[in-house]
Design brief:
The protein is mainly beta. Strands 8-7-10-11 form a 4-stranded antiparallel β-sheet, with no helix packed on it.
């Protein structure tokens, strides 16, 4: 064996002959040395070369020309976008060097391996910053190294909108427009003045504990399945003192017969707040056995927002009727019954 060939063969710790990869690399540029190196590769075994050094594994010896170095894949240029409060979308152009897959990192944590030039990271916390990097990997395991980090911040949960508060006979009713955040599962309602917070699935809430003469501030927050909350939207409302004053009694009630109906008119009532409606009552005149007459069968025949009022009479009715009117205000207070107005009924 020639001296320069002997330089490419060495013995390992067990005494077995194997190729010295450093010597091979130094002599690879010589044509004759490349032929001998190829012969030795066949004789000693490819595994000996590949196992000896990663440097030899990354170099190819050819019959023509100098050694060729295989470049690792290029590091991807990563872009990060917050899709919503719980999801970030990563994307990057395909790296040079024909990588077979990519390794995705969030901070120092390896998240996933993907063959596509993109990845969605879900289940994140709203209103928090995250840093991502991606590493390209070639078929032989060669890695690009991590990309430049891409930073992104998830937005907070989007709150509800258009909060409205209305005082009712039973308390305060809240309504709002739902959050446009897809992760929202409910709404947290709180109130100044000692009410325990409530969770509502819908877009309304009724507070039956509100007291007259008090002013309350209500706040509503959108909530996700993990308990994260949006910023609150608030509305103040004053609950007036409860109205206990009844409307004035309707006056000047008149009843006039027309074919098949009775037409009623009266003077409207007044109230310290507002009159809501009028209730119309009717009684029928009856004759007792001793020949005296009495009024019987009091009946609520209708409700109206104001005069006039028409009471239809069925065919064959030959009774005399009388009518009275009662006013009702917005708080449910009821006036006294008006004076009765009677009319004889004649049916042709």
């Amino acid at each position: 064996m020639s001296t320069w060939v002997a330089r490419m063969v060495a013995r390992d710790w067990s005494g077995a002959e194997r190729i010295d990869p450093v010597a091979v690399a130094r002599l690879a540029h010589r044509r004759a040395a490349r032929r001998v190196a190829a012969t030795l590769l066949g004789a000693v075994g490819v595994a000996a070369v590949l196992g000896a050094s990663g440097e030899v594994a990354r170099r190819a010896v050819h019959d023509d020309g100098p050694p060729v170095t295989v470049a690792p894949p290029g590091a991807p240029a990563v872009a990060a976008e917050a899709v919503d409060s719980h999801r970030v979308r990563l994307s990057w152009p395909t790296s040079s060097g024909s990588p077979t897959h990519y390794v995705v990192y969030r901070g120092d944590q390896q998240l996933a391996t993907t063959t596509a030039p993109g990845f969605d990271d879900t289940g994140l916390e709203p209103g928090r910053s995250y840093e991502y990097a991606v590493e390209a990997v070639a078929a032989d395991g060669t890695r690009s190294g991590r990309s430049e980090p891409a930073e992104v911040r998830t937005p907070p949960i989007r709150p509800p909108s258009d909060l409205r508060a209305a005082v009712t006979d039973t308390g305060v009713t809240l309504t709002w427009e739902r959050s446009t955040d897809q992760a929202v599962t409910g709404y947290r309602v709180s109130r100044s003045g000692g009410m325990a917070p409530a969770i509502e699935r819908g877009a309304s809430f009724e507070d039956r504990t509100a007291q007259p003469g008090q002013t309350y501030t209500y706040s509503v927050q959108a909530v996700d399945a993990h308990g994260h909350r949006s910023r609150p939207v608030s509305r103040s409302v004053e609950v007036p003192e409860r109205d206990t004053q009844a409307p004035s009694t309707p006056a000047d009630v008149e009843a006039r017969y027309t074919p098949m109906r009775i037409e009623l008119t009266w003077s409207e009532s007044t109230d310290n707040v507002a009159v809501k409606e009028y209730r119309v009552y009717r009684e029928r005149r009856a004759q007792s056995a001793d020949g005296s007459t009495t009024w019987v069968d009091r009946e609520h025949v209708g409700t109206t927002l104001g005069p006039p009022f028409s009471d239809e009479i069925g065919r064959g009715e030959r009774y005399a009727f009388r009518y009275a009117v009662q006013a009702v205000d917005t708080s449910g207070n009821v006036s006294k019954l008006s004076e009765w107005a009677s009319v004889p009924v004649v049916v042709d």
